[in-house]
Queue: 3 jobs
Job 1
Amino acid sequence: MDPQTGANVNLSEAPKPSSIDPEEVARYTALADRWWDESGPFWPLHTLNRLRTDYICQRLCAHLGRDPSAPRPLTGLRLLDIGCGGGILSESMARLGARVEGVDVTERNIAVARLHAARSGLDIQYEAVPVETLAARGEQYDVVLNMEVVEHVADLPGFMAACNQLVSPGGYSFIATINRNPVSFIVAILGAEYILRWLPRGTHQWRRFPKPAELEALLVPDGLRVLERTGVRVNPFNRGMYLTGYLGVNYMLMTTRTPAFAGVTELRSRTCGGS
């Protein structure tokens, strides 16, 4: 739906930003109805979600001077969940008090997320729209979650430029992905997809995994700086996931946007067509 006219928009006919990979959209469309099956193909996301929800809450509260043990410690924060899928992380953030908006380029994922949120009694705004469209609208958020998405996009620099613009001055973003090195190929591709079969084969393309330095370099032009880094390790015996100082496979970055760079990013958006 067009936010200004209220008219329905057919996303299949609208021009697609170059960061969208049609093959990835098709893959997740086929899996969309199984998002909330914790024993299905998305069980790693459910396990990871418990870890990352606690991490996000703890780190935000530490930087904002809030009590993470309060009933709804993220109350008042406008939060965007990019690539929200079926809404697993979005719902966790909403339960912590944040005003959550979730976006995904797969319309079936959005349908699943809306249905589950309604059944759960949660007020979450979902929209099937690319981040480039949000950036073009001038949307900005206190917190932007970019979790397990960057390794699936076709144009990482363009995608990150749009994501960066969505972080309000003084706001925060969290980015989670997989490193690119021989260890990550063995663990994330051979191990998770072919040996343990925790993920469907073809879920990831190793060449798209960004190294931390590569990802951080895409933050600098828009005035974002990294506050914290953490790795995530997986125990193959009990399927547990834990934080670690080792960034060689799965890792997360917490960043903040320097207020002084707001005008620079606005100028960049105008001169670069929002990308």
Job 2
Amino acid sequence: MLPIRFISLLLFSFLLPVSAFASAAGHEILNLTDHGVGYFALLIFVFAYALVILEEQLHLQKSKPVLLAAGIIWAMIAAVYASHGLNETTEEALRHNFLEYAELFFFLLVAMTYISAMIERDVFQALHFWLVSKGFSYRQMFWMTGILAFFISPIADNLTTALIMCTVVMTVGATRPEFVAIACVNIVVAANAGGAFSPFGDITTLMVWQKGIIEFSGFFKLFIPSVINFVVPAAIMHYFIPVGLPALPEEDSAEIKHGGLVIVGLFLMTILTAVLFHQILHLPSAFGMLTGLGYLKFFGYYLRMKHRREFSSFDSVPGSEGQGSGFNVFSQIAKAEWDTLFFFYGVIMCVGGLGFIGYLSIASEFIYGELGATYANIIVGVMSAIVDNIPVMFAVLTMNPDMPEVQWLLVTLTAGVGGSLLSIGSAAGVALMGQARGSYTFFSHLKWTPAIALGYAASIGAHMLING
């Protein structure tokens, strides 16, 4: 009976009067914030996001609830607009939001493919071996992994960076779970801070750059505030690191496969191409990234031909001994984080739908109109520790409050580093709770939240002092 009642109530909600009309871009826009469909859409999104937050407990991939929620929300919106003869308005709004996602999708897909290719060529495995074989003390390893996470995440994404560094600390701290716990906290903070001053370091900075709000070079104004955000809590945690030397690894060596360093160079060229396309040619940066995928595909062809010449069994059944070092770009594309990519789609379309309904305008008027830009942007950072920073930042971009560059930089900083306040506040933290299960937990991170909050406040103060 519940589905029948729900459908009946939903159909009845379509008959409710629309509270107000507005006009934008030559099309009538309905204000559905007081309409039954608006309430349903808000309820569906909250329920879907609750399932996302409980992903680890439910073992339900985070993309599933938001994909379904996005379809339901836009279907309800379309039904209301169709009843008013405004089908074109809905279609145009939907296409606008979908194009926003499509550019983000292809940008991330290419970046993930390159990261996957570098993993396949053992680039990160070689870095891992180098770190654990140098005989660093626990305190030295704490700082080394944090600094590397800070400087790798602006190029690679903060999630991949955190996972790589976590593998290192789990290796050296196999018998010291207390070291693994505190080092993971440091890695999460460092990776998020490093991603905040680069357009490529975090999804939030990428969205701001692709939107054209801040120029490529403008993000580097956040470098010093980002350093402070990382160093302040790390300096406090330093005195709680175990003393002594970890045991050396059992592996004899770890070498990068042929072409690994070339792929690193091609990745840097791809980033440069994306920047040039965006800054000079005024084309979407995703076009530059896809051009860079062509670099990798041609180099992949070279690797395959080289392998074919060296191993007569190249065309044999996959998995044979001669197939081991073959390279296939499509295999690397297949290894992309598809659940994450579809999660971004669901979130962007859900938030876009709520914005089209009118809820984000109300939120913008209250948060930015009543509190002012500075306090609002600080709150955005705190909210991103509870709710993922992607929907929060996309909501801010959809609101598009009238702010100077210093305030856009502030919200970019806070949304990027605010997620470090809690382990569930960023993809890096959630991933490390799974990878270092039992050592790094929600409460082991929460123990250091006051120190992280001090770094958060110090980075905001530094930004306002330097860039304000």
Job 3
Amino acid sequence: MQSFAYQVKSELCRVPVQRICCARAEAYGVLLYCNTFNAREIRIITENPEFAKRLPKLFHRAFSLRFDRLPREQEGREKLIFQITDPEKLERIISQFGYEAKQTLALHINFGVLEEDCCRTSFLRGAFLSGGSVTDPEKRYHLELSGNHRQASRELCALLTEMGFLPRMVTRGAATVIYFKQSEHIEDLLTKLGAPVAAMDIMTTKVDKAIRNGANRAMNCDIANVNKILEAATEQQSAIEALAKSGQLDRLPEKLRQTAQLRLEHPELSLSQLAELCDPPVSKSCMNHRMRKLNEEAKKLL
């Protein structure tokens, strides 16, 4: 069975890339959150075949180049590797984002590439496809972006905040993780990136959980009420049996004797139900008063 994260990424991969600026922005997000991006090598590893199909088209559209290495058949679906090591290709890509290929790359986000809202959205989509994950909403609400470039992650966190989201950030080993735990934020972000079906799945799951939790609370309340009724009935029966054994029950007023008889015959009923069986019927408060009198008479025997 496909994971929820797999389904989300597959849905995102169906978003068409039409404008070159958006293709470059998405590829930029992929590169900043992929396995390796430096002046010597680009290495992207994925387990999602839909993302693997998208990458060659995306990089050809963005940079008019092809990968030096594509996934091999013997690697299977668990490890799909894309690689670029050609110096000219690397320089073309690196210079496209304002970096110096001959220097050690200190990766940060060049916001000049992300001036348009559509480009920012494409950039976030690429970052999520490359370094993102989202938990099945049936288990919990959690979406994260994990990258190895601290400064780029800080700037991405600021970008998300500027776009109206409320991310959190934490260091996990060598990785810097941006994450969301509130379902509403995850829904909004997935919708923004181009996965409205996945966002709707989260909303539906949340509603189902609320219904189930409400039903469970109602059932627990009902069980508690039943237990309370049974405990009270048991106490009342013990009092009535003690009165009967002592002969005191026959000396009580007729209404109390009638109440005692009804309780002995119907130990499972609530006071409201017993009240309806009286002849003539009485109120619950009246029945409760009679039961208290029976208990008081029984306590006098102690």
